[in-house]
Design a protein that fits this description.
Length: about 280
């Protein structure tokens, strides 16, 4: 399987996978969706009772939203994830008690009137782990309300809950093969206009496939003409793949991690199958 990156910006990537099969790219899709570990907030503690500010003003620790809704919203905030720094909490040397190797503690202390945003969350003892997307609204407070919240993030995968899902909008299509029979191109047939994806163009009066990778194989260039000069087919060993991440890690890292997870799964499967052979 070869990968050629067509376009890559921080959270989004588009690439061509070649020397592959539909089963293999679908495994990559499923791995991206549910198997990449990432940090997400799993426990939230709310301070109950009055909250005082520096001037001695007293605020109520109530908000217009139920605590459960706030906890859910905080859980969905993408937490920056460096897989070199963290391990699963239940596999950690701390025996799951929670330590800097397996958890990140955030505090959220805000007094109204204001809108509380994800950017108000402070990573305790590790300012570099502050959330990147700072404008996710969490709750609105009036002038007598305040929140004091401690939240703990830990490693997980989307098999447990969607808040641990790194990649979104994961999809692929077959690589389109477009052939133009120049002898059959009739000047009265407007292939350029017929294609909704802008695949074709005229160059010096000659029809060319200007942007073949934009083709979705919709066949508008074939079915709209009685004797179309275009032949469309697809290459089932090449695929155009794209996805984006929630911001907890960049798209390239997510892709590399997925490929490593797949390689490890295939190795394990191969070993198990060879064990079966030796037991015969
Ligand atoms: Zn630990």
């Amino acid at each position: 399987m070869d990968i050629e990156v067509l376009e890559s910006i921080e959270n989004r990537i588009r690439f061509v996978v070649s020397k592959a099969t539909p089963e293999l790219v679908n495994s990559l899709r499923r791995t991206l969706l549910s198997d990449i570990p990432k940090m997400a907030i799993d426990k939230v503690e709310f301070h109950l009772g009055p909250i005082m500010d520096d001037q001695g003003k007293e605020y109520e620790s109530v908000t217009p939203l139920f605590d459960e809704i706030i906890a859910h919203r905080i859980g969905l905030v993408p937490v920056p994830t460096d897989l070199q720094l963290f391990c699963y909490r239940d596999e950690c040397n701390c025996d799951g008690e929670g330590c800097p190797s397996c958890t990140i503690m955030y505090s959220l202390h805000k007094m109204g009137p204001c809108t509380v945003y994800s950017g108000d969350m402070e990573a305790l003892g590790a300012p570099e782990l502050k959330v990147k997307d700072e404008l996710i609204p969490i709750v609105e407070l009036n002038d007598s309300q305040a929140v004091l919240i401690y939240a703990i993030a830990e490693l997980g995968t989307a098999q447990r809950h969607a808040k641990w899902q790194v990649a979104n909008g994961v999809g692929y299509k077959y690589y389109p093969l477009i052939e133009i029979d120049q002898d059959r191109v009739d000047s009265s047939d407007d292939y350029v206009k017929a294609c909704p994806r802008g695949v074709f163009a005229l160059e010096d009066g000659k029809l060319i496939s200007f942007d073949p990778l934009a083709c979705t194989l919709c066949k508008a260039c074939v079915e709209n003409f009685e004797n179309s000069a275009i032949t469309l087919s697809c290459d089932d060993t090449r695929f155009i793949f794209e996805f984006e991440t929630d911001g907890s890690m960049n798209a390239k890292d997510a892709l590399v991690t997925s490929l490593e997870i797949m390689a490890a799964s295939f190795d394990e499967f191969r070993e198990q199958v060879s064990d079966l052979d030796s037991k015969k």
